[in-house]
Specification:
It contains 15 helices and no strands. By secondary structure, it is an all-alpha fold.
Length: about 230
């Protein structure tokens, strides 16, 4: 396998040097901030990621204030006690995107957030204690206990709430394959995910960098050299 030093050097060359690459890095993962994140904000991000899947993100963003109002500010306790009439009404609510399956998944995810919070104090505290060296285990839990949180949706949820993990985007997978990892062009199988996890674990040991940084640098080292503006 290619060392991460080589991958980082390629990313720096593509983006204009070490300082230019550093400016493209996301915020460093902050476990204290994540542990304090309210369950309502976790559920809000779940909702946003579920509705963005297969849909134009800009449309969801433009209607987000309406989502906040329609879903009662994403307070899990309130949502789990709403009657059937409330959920049926959302199917006709023009403030949100009226996708029945995704709307109903929010009822399940409100209960999921409550269950995890009861077990661990809050969903944020639960995430803050889960090691990035076992992201695939966390993704499996999201898939099994949550609703519509499998695949890339779960990865993007973790990224947007600030958990330290990798994302198997097209460019990240291309980087891994170019580095010598034997995985498919689209990482979907548990076997391929396990290989990706093992490689990021190895690169984390090699560099001491966060998984979020490793994933981002990996993505910037390949593919079309797009402008960041």
């Amino acid at each position: 396998m290619t060392s991460f030093k080589t991958i980082r050097a390629r990313a720096e060359k593509r983006k204009g040097g070490p300082k230019a690459l550093e400016k493209l890095m996301p915020d460093k993962p902050d476990l204290k901030r994540l542990a304090k994140l309210g369950d309502d904000r976790i559920l809000a991000e779940m909702t946003k990621r579920v509705f963005c899947a297969g849909f134009a993100w800009s449309v969801i963003e433009s209607k987000w204030d309406g989502f906040e109002d329609a879903f009662l500010r994403f307070q899990p306790g309130k949502l789990t006690f709403q009657p059937e009439d409330y959920w049926e009404g959302l199917l006709r609510d023009a403030r949100i995107v009226r996708n029945g399956a995704k709307i109903m998944s929010m009822r399940d995810n409100a209960a999921f957030v409550q269950e995890i919070a009861k077990e661990h104090g809050s969903f944020g505290k639960f995430l803050a204690t889960w090691p990035p060296s076992n992201e695939i285990g966390l993704l499996d839990l999201l898939t099994k206990r949550g609703s519509r949180l499998g695949g890339n949706t779960g990865q993007m949820l973790l990224r947007f709430v600030g958990w330290d993990g990798f994302v198997t985007s097209r460019d990240v997978v291309a980087c891994l394959r170019e580095a010598g990892l034997d995985i498919a062009e689209e990482v979907k199988s548990k076997g391929d995910l396990a290989k990706v996890q093992a490689q990021f674990n190895a690169w984390a040991d090699e560099t001491g960098l966060s998984y979020t940084y490793l994933s981002r640098i990996c993505a910037l080292s390949v593919g079309e050299n797009r402008s960041e503006h």
